[in-house]
Design brief:
By secondary structure, this protein is mainly α. It contains 19 helices and no strands. It has a single domain, classed as Hydantoin permease, CATH 1.10.4160.10. Helix content is 80%, strand content 0%.
Amino acid sequence: MAGSRGQFSSRIGFILAAAGSAVGLGNIWGFPTQAASNGGAAFLFVYLILAFTLAYPALMAELIIGRHAHANAATALRQISPSSLWGKIGSGVGVAGMVVASLILSFYAIVAGWMIGFFVAALLKLLGLNDVAIWLESFSTARNLGLMTLFMGLTAGIITQGVHGGIEKWSERLMPMLLACLVGLAVYVLTLPGASEGLKIYLLPDFNKAIEPDLILKALGAAFFSLSLGVGTMLIYGSYISDEEHLPSLGGWVTVTDVSIAVLAGFLVLPSMYVALHNGIEIFDASGNLLSEDTLIFTVLPALFDTIGSAGVVLAGFFFFLMSIAALTSSISMLEVPVAYFVERDAGSRPSVTWVTTAIITLISATIILNFETLFGLVITLTTRYGQPLLGFMFCIYAGWLWNRDTLLTELKKNNPGAADGLFWRIWPTYVKVVCPLIILGIFYQSI
Ligand code: PHE
């Protein structure tokens, strides 16, 4: 079966593609802005704990189920279920994940469109076309609709090409460049006046804030969003991994890469905020809250590039280009969820399924743009703060309680005969069975 489906051609290809899915706007737009408005270091602290203790085990559940079933989430959960009732519920969870993935893509494409806008604006400024550049950088319904549609078109274009030619090739080329660019910028910003203030807020935690239920719930959502969990993305990527690979270490690499890039982006964004403040740009309102959390980085980063002089425009162009690519390697992994589902269920042709799905998501996204004030924040909260952790909870239940333990062990033993004596097998099954579900439920209970 695996032969007729796509497959990643190499270990590094998978790591980069899965890391490409994980690393995106969640790391560079979501995490740092949430950290900035929720206690800085306290948020970082809770996020780190949750990423390694909850998100990594949940990621492993998706990868292992995916590779075992070599199918989309709905089929996979049905396949590992012990009874037909659980099978039906499993399909329901898979379909719910697909809906959440599509909704995430519908807001994601809006923000990604802004990234493209700032990239093109930098190019136009170099050509002296300042009026169009300013239009691209200013908030308007027309701009948002145009750029969102463009981004959705790019995403669909890559997905029609399938796993190897599309997803893998692009991730391999562009991920390393993003990393280099982030490091360079973070090092530069730390030399500027005002930066140390931001650094302090990012690194010195107020532990009273770290135990606030609301902060913990937000950090949980951020960790699940940033690792692309709960919606079947990682499960479907897992289904394209060859049986030769050692899954726990693959998952470990993806987690470490993703978390490092989020933390690194914090070193860029929080100091930049205070550099901007130092340069007279308003970022807080009278009561000390951040102005416009969602668009924060589109204010403070351009202000940072301005400090560099004329080379700043080139750098801004480069940065927003890489951000657009990071968003693309994530958005393709979201679109792959409904596409894989319909292609496998109805044996449809990949290109036509892709374009129909894209058209539907584009319409949802346009609806959000036309009702921005009411819908944008609401869709983000519902999908990332509630949808992803709750669906992740269900994946843990399937991996821990419903899946036959022998089959699970056989899956782990593929190309790793000693798996039964390894640390992973001794800890993980009980951990996803008991600890993960309890912590997730506990966090939700506390926050109500
Ligand atoms: N992890 C991606 C990011 O950080 C977002 C994402 C969520 C991707 C869900 C796929 C599925 O930007």
